[in-house]
Amino acid sequence: MDFRANVLTVAGSALIAAASPAPVLADAAPVTHDLMPAPLRLEWQPGQLVLDRRFSLGSVGTADPRIDAALARARTRLETLGLTLAGPPAGAKATLVVEATGAGKGVQEVGEDESYELNVSSKQARVTAANPLGVLRGLETFLQLARVEAGKAVVPAVRISDRPRFPWRGLLIDPCRRWEPASVVKRTLDGMAAVKLNVLHWHLSEDQGFRVESKVYPKLQQLGSDGNFYTQDQVRDVIAYARDRGIRVVPEFDLPGHSTSWLVGYPELGVVPGPYTLVREWGVFDNVLDPSKEEVYTFLDRFFGEMASLFPDAYMHIGGDEVTPRQWNASASVQDFIYRNNLPGAHGIQAHFNKRVNEIFTRHGKKMIGWDEIQSPDLPKNILIQSWRGSKALAENARRGYDGILSNGYYLDLLFPVADHYLNDPIPADSTLTAEERRHILGGEACMWGEFVSPETIDSRLWPRTAAIAERLWSPADVRDLPDMYRRLEIESVRLGALGLTHLARYEPMLRKLTGGQPTTSLRVLADLVTPVKEYRRGGLRIYTSSSPLDRLVDTARADSVSIRTFETALDRYLQSAPAARDDSALRAMFTTWRDNHAVLEPILTASPLGQEARPLSRDLAALGRVGLEALDSIRADKEAPAVWTERARAVVEASAPARAEVELAVVPGMAKLVLAASQLDQLKSMTPAEWNRKLDEQLRAAAGGRGEH
Ligand code: ACM
User: Fold this and answer.
1) Least C-beta-crowded within 10 Å: which of 106, 140, 285, 615?
2) CATH 3.30.379.10 correct for 6-162
3) pLDDT grade, residue 18 (50/70/90)?
């Protein structure tokens, strides 16, 4: 059943009848709820539950400390709505009763039941689940429903029946490239739990740092971390914190490449004798373990034995990505080993290494995960492959019978718009996999690689964007309406801010640094309209290291901003309107702001060492504002803009297009379209606005041919 059929709106008034799922990019998406991720089934009921000071929480059924802890947190979070809750924890008579009818596993497992039912009437709310995990998920839904309305905290009456589409819904955090203390990891876990993610993939070793304490091989962290590592007590604390929130913790120790930090303390594991020093820049490096040495496996057996007891999850990750074979190729002893064992070259010796490590993992009771590159024909089927290279690789592996998860398309560090991540499906609609093969695709993981994030900025890359990926992995495949996703994402963003994530709270202080303490209103106009350069371009624009400050405009700007979407939506609506119905007031107001902003912002930027580099962008935004106003004037007068204007306006747009200060003015493509529209207005006399828009878009695509991203 499609839950959007025949449901009441949140306000409980209008009846919306949507017989089929809304098409992607539909203009009028059915407004159904503010939840993220969207539940499987939701039916609004008449009335609402008022949360007043008599409101109480209680649990019945299976006792589990996770439920008690979740109720205590829920209570605190409800109090942020302005409630003071008087009642002590209560049982079956509580206002909100949660019930797990069965027990959970001592160590959370993949595929453990996370389903729940949430029923809210005007008298009581009830979460029922077969497993404590379902109670945790249902409580998050209840908290997302709670709102202040007409001076009262309320939850609308509703019946929700929900369960995840995929059992593996993860987020990778990389504290290796740059250090992220445990406090960052913990608040990230809070955000993950709020959007029903259930795996923290903790990338713990890299060329730039070894980030966990080993008591067996202490030189790993002593010489390989600059003092920035998690103690075993901190690791246990993070794991307990995650477990409380229904999140598994999977550690990654990246081998045999990406391994310089191991070799600093233990050079004997490497191919070349060393000495090694920690890498402090970004890239793929040649240092690699020597799979031909038996002592390497003795070391790994003891090391993974230690980690297998520190990390309770059934899985451990050995990385395996991006191994450069240069040192293997240049080593006589490695080549001799390859020859004697009849291995097919460098890939063969990596496969041999993986096989040996998998045996070690099996001995310590763990299942092995690796990135795409670990795939080789003779690898046993009990491993899991994480695809960063593409969903085709994921499907191929599933066809061969390997479990897999998707990360290609979910790289948050590439700073693509949320929509790109959101529409990226581990099992796309056109997938030709059989039902049996599909079962091997366990889900996916968002990846927050650490090169360009600090404790101050990481939340602005993670949130609210990760919530959209969480929805892709939790909600039904046909929940794909972009405007509705963006609408709910902004609501979820505020909820995540209230939970303690810092993506909203840090924006103003970061702007303030760029203005050197001056007022930020004018800088915000500009910062809201630029996006950081995408993909891996930033690393090519200047030398960055693990200690470069990340406090420039590019660190402050976001990959997605409401202002950019507001501009794009207003422009679309304007150009798609019939001439008689055209309303240019919203665009006119924006262009006027852009035009006039520079006079205020320029002196502020000029006086600020961190702000100076943004001056050309501010100047170009003003020029775009002027061009925009002129275009609107032409169109309003129903007079096609003359060729000489078009030439000048195009030059302004083109001059605004290149990245400066490692950011781009995100309004440039829209402005190019507006200029083209003004210059081809007469065509509209013989076409509908839709045809005209199509033609304008075609010309813009042709002009951008080959230059476009993706
Ligand atoms: C990867 O991005 N090298 C896994």
Assistant:
1) 106
2) yes
3) very low
Report DSSP letters for 561-625, one per residue.
-HHHHHHHHHHHHHHHS-GGG---HHHHHHHHHHHHHHHHHHHHHHT-TTTGGGHHHHHHHHHHH
Task: Identify the pLDDT of residue 53.
Answer: 87
Which residue, 354, 347, 344, 482, is CA-closest to 419?
A: 482
- Closest-CA residue, ligand 1 atom 3, reads 321
Of the residues 201, 317, 371, 408, which should be mutated to test ligand 1's pocket, given the most ligand atoms within 8 Å of the CB?
A: 371
Ligand 1 site, CB within 6 A: 321-322, 371, 388
Q: How far is the CA of 476 from the centre of ligand 1 (A)?
A: 28
Q: Give the residue extent of every domain in the chain.
A: 6-162, 174-480, 507-706
What residue owns the CA closest to ligand 1's atom 2? 388
Predicted TM-score (pTM) of the model is: 0.94
Say how far apart CA 130 and CA 101 lie, in whole Å: 5
Pairing mode, strands 209-210 and 199-206 = antiparallel
- What is the per-residue pLDDT across 240-251, written as a single tens digit (0 to 9) for each? 999 999 999 999
- At residue 652, the 3 state secondary structure works out as helix
Round to whole Å and give the CA distance between 583 and 586.
8
pLDDT on residue 2: 31
Active site residue 698: no
The arithmetic mean of pLDDT across residues 256-285, rounded, is 97
Q: Looking at 43, 99, 149, 322, which residue is catalytic?
A: 322
The closest-lying atom of ligand 1 relative to the alpha carbon of residue 447 is 2
Distance 710 CA to ligand 1 centre (A): 18
- Considering only the top CATH level, what class is 174-480? alpha beta
- Tell whether the model's pLDDT for residue 198 goes beyond 90: yes
